[in-house]
Amino acid sequence: MAEGSVSEVETSFQKFAVHGDSKATGKEMNGKNFVKLCKDCHIIDGKSVTSTDVDIVFSKVKEKSARVITFEQFNLALTELAPKRFKGKSTEEALEKLYALVVGRGPSNAGVTKVAKAAAVDRLTDTTKYTGSHKERFDDSGKGKGKAGREDAADASGYVSSYKGSGTYDEKVKEA
């Protein structure tokens, strides 16, 4: 096997090792991510290699008390899975084909929940159709005014808290 492909396989290993785990370093991979790698890279084909086979191989190559595998153990696992996946090929040839499946792959996010854009949602969020006090919360472009649109700002311009009409005192004195 070419030296370049080992580093490429290791790059894929690291991408899957850190998938979904913010604390992961990329040096070790847990069982869940190993199964994900096998699924995403089509090592699991549902016929000759199933997720159960992958779990068994993972348990076999990891340390007794460990819950993760290193890259070396990952290579052992692939060596074990290769003849199962590519029956009738030599071990080296099967491993070569298996590495080819892994190289350049990263975790795919197939089936990730999409944002639903239904007509009902559009209708409910169309600010032009708002009436009453809700209408005041948006400017002409439909952008929210923030806090200014939600509260009546208190006029604290008078002498005391409830005094309304700043600047009218002098006029009242002249009238008297």
TrEMBL record:
Cellular localisation: Cytoplasm
Keyword Ribosomal protein annotated: no
Gene Ontology terms describing biological process: microtubule bundle formation; microtubule polymerization; positive regulation of protein polymerization
Disordered: annotated segments: 131-176
Record bears the keyword Ion transport: no
GO MF annotations in UniProt: tubulin binding
Regions annotated as coiled coil: none
This protein's UniProt keywords: Cytoplasm
Family in the record: Belongs to the TPPP family.
Name the record gives this protein: Putative tubulin polymerization-promoting protein family member 3-like
Species for this entry: Scophthalmus maximus (Turbot)
